[in-house]
Amino acid sequence: MWPWKKPKLYRHGDLLLRQVDEIPESATPLSTNIIAHGENGNTHKLHGSHQVYETPDKQILFTAEQDVSLKHEEHSTLKIKEGNYVIIQEREFEPFKNIEQEVID
Question: Would you kindly state where each structural domain of the chain is located, as residue ranges?
Fold first, then answer.
């Protein structure tokens, strides 16, 4: 058995949700249930008791105060356990243009 706790990870389209111990003090609460926008106006939305936050460097996090659901028009509904999470947007490297960019769902 490993001496450290493995964080919970969830995948939802182009998003990776990683459980974190706490929300940074610098994070500002937002009044929304949207944690990401897609290229066609689709959104990843939380349903259930939660609070979304944004850090000064535009990192999105949320607290699920109980088990919540994450919904998107193009993906199955994802059940997420109670806890604190950071949203990691998938990125891709374009070698011919030598650029890194976000993958848009």
Answer: 28-84
